[in-house]
Amino acid sequence: MSQFYISDTRSPSTTSGRSSPASSDDEDLTTLPFAPPLARNDFLTPDFTPSAYLSTLSNRHQTLEDLRAELRSRSQLLSRELLDLVNANYADFLTLGNSLRGGDEKVEGVRVGLLGFRKEVAALEGLVAQREEEVGRLVKQRREARRRIEGGRRLVEFEERVRACEEGVAVGEGEGSEESESEEDEDEEEGEGQFGTSVARLRRNVVQYRLAKDVVNGLEEHPFVVAQAHRLGRVRSTILLDLSTALQQAKVAGDAGAGRVMQIMKIYADMEETGEAIKVLKALKK
What we know:
mainly alpha, 70% helix, 0% strand, elongated, transport, coiled coil, COG_su2_N, protein transport
């Protein structure tokens, strides 16, 4: 039998100066230590390879035959453990299958419950959609009501401003005209009293006229605005007549009325009636 490891130490004989080879081999074999069992953890390393593992056994005091027997025994032990593990897992699998028997009824119960919950959610979704539609309709109605209220307020204001325009262009007729003219003349420059209508009054009338037009901007097709258009047209004609008379008077005054001419032209521009002013000036030249 071949030796896997043999020590180089030789024990001298105590009875004679020379020792026979046979007796030396017997003494070497009896003095070698017993090899420890192979460690189980050595086979569990992630990078385990047989060749690398055998190379670590170079100093092991064991014959090759004994090493083969021990490795064979270790392999058989691992095979039995693997078989036991498979049998145990298979038994657990069978036990799990037996424990799951009757689970179909539970699954069916859960499925029925989920279907009922789904129907309830669908009903709630329909209810929410109805409420959303109703709220949207109410919001739309509220916006429409606000729009109408705002339109009504603008129409009322339009009526008030048209009346103010009519009263403004009628100032000077009847009693109280002298008092109104005296109040306006306080703001006029010196020497303007020689003209018929003050620039302040003309400017105020134009401002009232523009406000009356602006307040119904976008409501020009409203029946009430259409019905009152003739009143606003009379106010415009009266204001243009007053401006034309005032411009002619200032123009005839020469240098004394030059400043008044510029003021009246500015009033024409504010009224967006510059073309009417040009017509008056052309007529004066003729």
